[in-house]
Design a protein that fits this description.
Elements lengths: L2 H19 L12 H5 L3 H79 L6 H17 L2 E5 L13 H13 L8 E5 L11 E5 L2 H10 L13 E4 L3 H20 L3 E6 L2 E6 L3
Antiparallel strand pairs: 1-3, 1-4, 2-3, 5-6
């Protein structure tokens, strides 16, 4: 039965009753009383009572139908949840199999590389050393997806919001002009908590392009009063940080010696251009 049709019947019956009882000072169904009904002639009262019985019967059928539909939907939802769980389990199994296959392939390739290098070099390269090289390369790729934020305020001891860093990092990224990430990043403070200083905040994205885009747009933060003291740098190794620090010192010297030129660091080297360009 159509719900709209049933409601229409109910509203029509209500209007009919109000019109029927209007001569007896009944302006609303809430005004209906025993005395008012006693004043009504028997035949019209019987007619409206039969209408009410039919309306109640149709409403009862509608409620039974709705309850059956609701049970069916609940059953279908449980079936879908069960299917989803099975799909997730299948995916986990496939991922595990793929990971084992990749690990076996890497081990096989490393054994082959070790044999080739051993034949062509005086010093034998062990499989352990080759694994170390591969691990370093993978760590380098992971770091390219990261950025480090400095001077991002940490939450107070009284602040119980566990998502403080992520929410604040999101606001900073928005202020810099980065497109919304829809939760596709991971935040982590570096180092042990200290009351005397703010720990750097590492942000890990799902792609290198996003990290690079944020690094390029981070210059926009200097014009934002709230975040003007926050700066963002790549995720560098200890050796890279030492080398970058030396470049910064050299950059300061060149800027002092040549104030008419614009010096900047790009791709681990100092570059320059004319100020009017």
């Amino acid at each position: 039965m159509d719900l709209k049709f049933s409601l229409k019947q109910l509203y029509e019956f209500e209007d009919d009753v109000k019109g029927f009882l209007q001569p007896f000072n009944v302006k609303d169904v809430n005004d209906i009383s025993k005395n008012a009904l006693k004043s009504v002639h028997k035949d019209p009262l019987v007619e409206h009572t039969l209408k009410l019985v039919k309306l109640l019967k149709s409403s009862h059928e509608l409620l039974k139908s709705a309850a059956a539909d609701l049970d069916s939907l609940k059953c279908e939802q449980l079936q879908n949840q069960s299917r989803l769980i099975h799909v997730q389990e299948d995916l986990n199994v496939k991922k595990s199999v793929q990971l084992e296959s990749v690990e076996k392939t890497v081990d096989d390739k490393l054994s082959t590389w070790s044999s080739v290098v051993a034949k062509n070099c005086e010093k034998k390269v062990t499989q352990k050393e080759m694994k170390k090289v591969v691990k370093l390369a993978m760590n380098e790729q992971d770091r390219e997806r990261n950025v480090i934020m400095f001077n991002v305020p940490e939450r107070d001891v009284q602040n119980k919001n566990e998502h403080h860093d992520g929410q604040l990092a999101f606001k900073i990224m928005q202020k810099a002009g980065l497109a919304e990430q829809d939760g596709q990043y991971y935040c982590k403070r570096l180092g042990a908590p200290e009351s005397s200083k703010i720990r750097p905040l590492k942000i890990q994205f799902s792609s290198r392009s996003t990290a690079f885009e944020l690094l390029v747009k981070s210059k926009n933060l200097k014009d934002a009063d709230q975040y003007s003291n926050i700066f963002i740098v790549p995720d560098r190794t200890l050796q890279e940080r030492v080398e970058h620090k030396k470049l910064v010192e050299q950059l300061k010297v060149k800027r002092a010696e040549n104030p008419d030129k614009r010096f900047y660091i790009w791709n681990k080297s100092i570059r320059s251009s004319n100020m009017n360009v």
